[in-house]
Amino acid sequence: MFSALQLSSKGKVAVQVQLQNLRTEMLRNPEGIDAVHPRLSWEILGNQRGTMQTHYHVLVASTPQKLAADEGDLWNSGKVQSNQATYVTYAGAPLKSRREAYWKVKTWTNHGGESAWSEPNYWSMGLLSYGDWEGRWIGMDKASPWDEEDRFARLSARYYRKEFEAPKQIKKAKVYIIGLGLYELFINGQRIGDQVLAPAPTDYTANVKYNTYDVTKQLKSGKNAIGTVLGNGRFYTMRQYKPYKNKTFGYPKMLLNLVIEYTDGTSEKIRTEESWKMTADGPIRTNNEYDGEEYDARKEMPGWNAVGFDDSKWRQAEYVQEPDGEIEAQMNEPMKVMETLKPVSVKLLKPGTYILDMGQNMVGWLKMKVQGKQGDQVTLKFAEVLNEKGELALENIRDAKVTDVYTLKGGGEEVWEPSFVFHGFRYVEVTGYPGKPIVNNFEGRVVYDAMKTVGSFKTSNPIINQVHENSYWSIRGNYKGMPLDCPQRNERQPWLGDRPVQAYGESFVFDNEKLYAKWLDDIQNAQKADGSIPDVAPAFWRYYSDNMTWAGTYLMIADMLHQQYGNVRVIEKHYPFMRKWLQYMESQYMTDGYIMAKDSYGDWCAPPATIEEGRGMNANVKHPSYLISTAYHYHYLQMMQRFARLTGNEGDIKGYQALAEKVRKGFNHEFFIAKDASYGENKLTDNLLALYFRLVPKEQEAALFKTIANIIEVRNKGHLSTGVVGTQWIMRSLTEFGRPDLAYKLATNTTYPSWGYMVENGATTIWELWNGNTAAPTMNSYNHVMMLGDLVSWYYEDLAGIKSDRGQTGFKQIEMKPLMVNGLDFVDASYHSVHGLIKSNWKKEKKRFSWKITVPGNTKAVVYIPARSQNDITESGKAVSSASGVRFLKMEGGRAVFEIGSGDYAFVVK
C-alpha cells in the first residue's frame, strides 16, 4: 500500500521520500474518504547511515496544476521542525464533500540539505453529511415466487439498471454507492473496480459503509447505462429462522449517486429513485454465504447493464426504508481476489463424482471452465478434509450446505465463478461435469482484504517455517472485512476472543491497521448503553455474556494499534467507551474481595491430556474461571493507566492504581497456594497469568516460574496444556523469565499437543483444536487463528529480534535482541513498519556469528550482539569501534549492546 517516489537530492546527501497512504483514514489513492482531518505519512530512504528527519514541508493543493506550481492552496505547512513522518495531521482549509486533494512533501535531514519534492499523491473527500446524499433507497421488500424463505434462506440476487443521457463533454464522474448486503457495479457493461464482496460488513443498525469510484473513463457523452447486482451478504442473513440469535436487517437495498462534472462547469447527479428498473429473475438464483451460490446461465440477460437493453418486462424499483445505521465511508481495504491457485489433482471417486484437491486449505471460491449442452448442471461441494473413504468430510461444516451449482446455457465453452459467497476448503466434490474434468478446468481464487503483506520469516527449522506458512494462510483466509473465527462452517463470526494477542502477531505479517481500526468501531457500535460488550462484533449473533477475556479484546486491539503503528488516535477515540465497559463490569460482578466473579468460557479449548482421551470428545464445553477474569481485570487496569496518560486523562490514573492494588491483593488472597508456589488448581494457564501480569508477589516470582517450568517439562512431558487464553502468554513468559529453550521446544514439537503436530498430520492451516484430527466434528475447524496465541509475535520479536520499543512505539526505536537457542542456526526475517523496511538476518556457525541488519530512515535500533567483548565484533569488515553509525552502550548478559541509526549493517563475531 505504498507509492514509491524517487527523489533527487539537493545538498550533501541523496535522500528519497516514499509517500505512504494516509494511514488509518485512507486507502491508496483513496476515493471518497470521510476523515476531515486525515493524517499523512511518508518514509525517509537513503543509503547514508543514521539519517534522521529534521524538518518537513507539506503542500496540499486542490488541483494537480497548482501542486505542480508549488501552490498549496489547501495547506502549506511551511518548513516545520520535526522528525515526525507518520500521522502528520492535515491542518489546512476545511475539506468539503467531494473535494479533491493533491499532496507532496519534502524533507530535511541531519546530514544537511533537502530532498526534492516527492511525486504527488492524491485523495478525494466523500459525502460528509447525510444531506449530501440525494435520491431514495430502492429495493424490493419481499421474496420472489421461486425463492424459499425457510431455514436456508434461498433468495435470488436483484438486478437494477438505469439509462441516462450525458449531454455535454464529461470532465469527471464519480459513483458513491451503498449496496446492501453486497453489490457489483457496472457502467456501460463494464464492471467497475476489482473489489469483491463489497462493502465491508457492519451491524447495519449502527453503521453502513459506502464506496466511491472514479468512473470518468467508463462514461461517455450521450447515452449511458448503469447497472448493479445486489447479493444478500450479512444483510439478508444466512439463517432467518433464529431471530432470537441471528440479527437480520431486511431485504437487499441500495442508495447510489453518480455525480457528473462537465467541462463547461455544470454538473449533474444521477440518483436512485423510482425510474430505475429491477428484476430478481436473473441467473443468480440464490446466494447464501453458508450454503453457496446457484447460477443458471440460461437466465442470463445479455446487455442488461448496457445501453439499449429491453427492460420492458422488468419492474419499477420500489422505495424502501433506509437502514438505521449511520452512513460512513469504508476506510479499510476492500476484499479482492489476491491469488490464484491451480489444483494439484482431480481424481475419480465413483462414476460421475470427482474429488478436486487444491493442495492447500484456502478461502475463496472456484473459477470453472466447462463445455456441455444446455441444462447440464455442475455441482461443486466444498470441504477442508476427506474421510477414510476419500469422500468429503462434512460433519464439521454442520448445517451449512457449502454448495455451488452452475447450470449451463450450452453452445461453447463457459467460464464461471460466483459473486456473493466464499468457501473455506481444500477439497471439492465435482458432480455433473460433462466429460472428464481436469486440473486446467479449475482455478482456486484466494480472497481476502487487499492489505499488504509486510512480513517475511524463514529459519533453519522446517517445522517453524511450515507453521509460519500455515499461519499466513489462516490469517489471511479469515480476513473478510472483519476478523472471522473460521471460513467454512455455519458460523464465520468475528469472535473477540480469537484475536486479542493473535492480532498482534498478525500485524507482523499483514498491514492490518485499517481492518482492526474498523473492528474497534464495530465493537464500540455493539456496546450497550450500560457498557456491556458482546462476544461477537459486529453483533450478528446476540451474545452478551459479559465475559472479561472476550470483551477485553477491545482494549488489547487498541493497544496493538498503538504499539505496532504508533496510532494514538484509536485510543483517544475509544478511551471513554473502554472506561465505560470496565466500570460496568466492576459495578455488576466485582465482589467485596475484589474478585471479578464473572467468566464465560475459561481457558477455552484446552487440550485433552492425551490424543486418545480426546478422541470423539466435543470441545464445546465451558469452564468458567474467576481466577482468569480477575487476572484480566488487573491486566486491564494496568493498560488503562497507560491509555489515560496517552489521552490526557491523568486524573483517572490514581483510581486505576488504587483499584489495581486491591485487585492484586484480593487475587493473591483467593488464589495463591503458597506451599506449592502456584495459583488456583495449579493449571498452566492460571500460573502463567499470575506471572505475566505481575500479580505474583515479587519474592515468589522465581518459585512460581519454577512451578510453570515443572508443569511443562515433567507433568506435560515437554508440551503445553493451554487453551486459547493461556496460549496467548506462554511463549513470551518462558522467554522473559529465562527459559527460551523451553519456548523453542514448544515451538518445534511435532508430538501432541503442538503446532508441529498439526503439520505432521497434514495441516496447511492452523486448527481450531489441538486434537483436531480426533475430536468430535461438532466444533472442529481446520482453519482458525485462535490457537496461535503469541507464537507469531514471538517469531518476529524474539527469534528474529524485530521489536518496537514500548516507550517509542511504531518502531520509531527498534529493539533487536534475537534469541540464541540450541538447534536454531539462522533466522532471516523482515518487517515493513510504518517507518520503512526492517531486516534481521542472523546466522550461527561453528566459530562465527554473523548478523545483517537493515534499519529504516528516521529511526534508531538498539542491538544486542552475542559476544564476550565489543573487541570481538567487526562491522562491514572493520572493528566495530570504528564503524560509522554504531555507538557502544554497554555489555549485558553476554551481549554487546549498541545503538545504530538507519542503514545497512553487517556484524560478525568470531
From TrEMBL:
Residue stretches making up the Alpha-L-rhamnosidase C-terminal domain: 801-878
Catalytic activity field: Hydrolysis of terminal non-reducing alpha-L-rhamnose residues in alpha-L-rhamnosides
SUPFAM superfamilies: Galactose-binding domain-like, Six-hairpin glycosidases
Superkingdom, natural source: Bacteria
Location of the Alpha-L-rhamnosidase six-hairpin glycosidase domain: 453-798
Domain Bacterial alpha-L-rhamnosidase N-terminal, residue spans: 168-339
Gene3D superfamilies reported for this sequence: 1.50.10.10, Galactose-binding domain-like (2.60.120.260), Immunoglobulins (2.60.40.10), Maltose phosphorylase, domain 3 (2.60.420.10)
Gene Ontology process terms (BP): carbohydrate metabolic process
Alpha-L-rhamnosidase concanavalin-like domain boundaries: 349-448
Keywords tagged on the record: Hydrolase, Plasmid
GO molecular function, one term: alpha-L-rhamnosidase activity
Leading EC class: hydrolase
Keyword Hydrolase attached: yes
EC number: 3.2.1.40
PANTHER family: ALPHA-RHAMNOSIDASE (EUROFUNG), ALPHA-RHAMNOSIDASE (EUROFUNG)-RELATED
Protein name: alpha-L-rhamnosidase
Taxonomic source organism: Rufibacter tibetensis
